[in-house]
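So, can you check what follows?
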Amino acid sequence: MEFAAARDWEQYHTPKNLVAALSVEASELLEIFQWLTPEQSAGIMADPGDAHRVEDEVADVLSYLLQFCAVLGIDPLAALAAKIERNETRFPPAAR
């Protein structure tokens, strides 16, 4: 947030713009994996160059998600906990 404020970018950080940027960054992360086999995708972090690309895109996705949450007043960890709780009811563990 300080990074954006120091550059006067906050004026552009509307919910619509942030969620669009989040989608673009998630797509850039997906692009890295697009044509990989399951085995290649599981081992991608073994190559330093590929690992760096993945980490950069993860950072971009997380950054935009956190900015989006801040603008809308969403506590992302509370939202996650509530969603997991709802899913526990919707999707009970398989009987063994």
